[in-house]
Amino acid sequence: MFAFGTHQKSEVLRPVNLDEALQWRRAYSGDAVYISGGTLLRAQWENESAFMPPQLIDLRGIAGMSGIEEREGAIHIGAQTILAACRQHPLLQQYAPALMEAVRGIAAPSIRNLATIGGNVVSATGDCLPALLVYGADLVWYDETGMFTEPLLEWLRIRGSGMMTSERILTAVRIPIRAQQSESKPIHFYQKVGRREAFTPSVATISVYAAVGKDGVLSDVRIAGGGGATFAHRLTAAEKLCEGARLGDAALPPAVFKAVMNQFQAFGDAFASAEYRVKTAANLAASAVWTNGKSR
Questions:
Q1: DSSP letters along 104-115, please?
Q2: pLDDT tens digit string along 83-108?
Q3: For 141-181, how does the pLDDT look when each residue is reduced to its tens digit (9 = 90+)?
Q4: Residue 170: which H helix or E strand, with range?
Q5: Which of 86, 169, 197, 261 would bridge with 282, disulfide CB 3.0–4.6 Å?
């Protein structure tokens, strides 16, 4: 296998189980890279933002790491599930439509037929992450101690600190299924702004989940953002403003805009400045509140 634009050849290793994958990762002193769909890695090699590793550990031959099903009160999404499979699945349509909307805006259909939910997550900047954050997703990992579960929010915090080990293998993403209260309706919102509708790096992404009572009062509010090189993160100041507020209150959208402007963390690059990304995210969050208030 060759990197685009280079003549460096990588050895492709094909483990048959998770233990063998870990053994190979350790045997090559951390130089080997796990790969499945490989779409992000190919893009990085193409634009020379990452080096082609000497070994690639292809996880596609390991059974039990793809598919979407309800399991133990959660939606269980295998890490190797391709993004195309997440676009129309009935469980996601019922409980996590914001995730479906996030997937819809990622790249072209040919890419979604290769790229995996696991790859989008472990990048730490994938467009699925804000939606997964508002749904309180957990990550299921495998390492030398066995399987363990970790909140996505906590993993992103540790990843951002630079303390993360890369030997562990992501095996699944789990979204808890919330019991729907008869006296409230859920809000599911996701929007991405890029240079065009799809197949483009995101300038900013915002996702919102909340419950709206019959009186219009908001509860269980979760707002998250990301985009570009920004690690997805919860926007807790905006959440606190919305919690207990009445949807449709004219003062709420501008207050949310200001809160996001003060908290959203962004990095500038060749496509957009940090300031532009922050303002875009703030506008998206305010729009989510205003649009849902207007529709009541």
A1: HTSS-HHHHTT-
A2: 999 998 999 999 999 999 999 888 66
A3: 999 999 999 999 999 999 888 776 668 999 999 999 988 77
A4: strand 169-176
A5: 261
Contact 205, 127 (CB under 8 A): yes
Q: Residue 62: CA atoms inside 13 Å, Cβ hemisphere, count?
A: 25
What kind of architecture, by CATH, is found in domain 11-61? 2-Layer Sandwich (3.30)
Enter the tokens of residue 27. Answer: 């045997």
Superfamily of domain 184-294: CO dehydrogenase flavoprotein, C-terminal domain (3.30.390.50)
Tell me how far apart the 2 most distant CA atoms of the chain are, in Å. Answer: 64
* Of 180, 249, 172, the residue nearest 209 (C-alpha): 180
Tokens for 79, please give them: 């890490």
How many whole angstroms separate alpha carbon 119 and alpha carbon 106?
12
Q: When comparing pLDDT for 168 and 29, which is higher? A: 168
pTM recorded for the entire structure: 0.90
d(CA 293, CA 79): 36
Token pair in block for residue 76: 């269980």
Residue 12 confidence class, pLDDT cut points 50, 70, 90: confident
Is the distance from CB of 79 to CB of 116 less than 8 angstroms?
A: yes
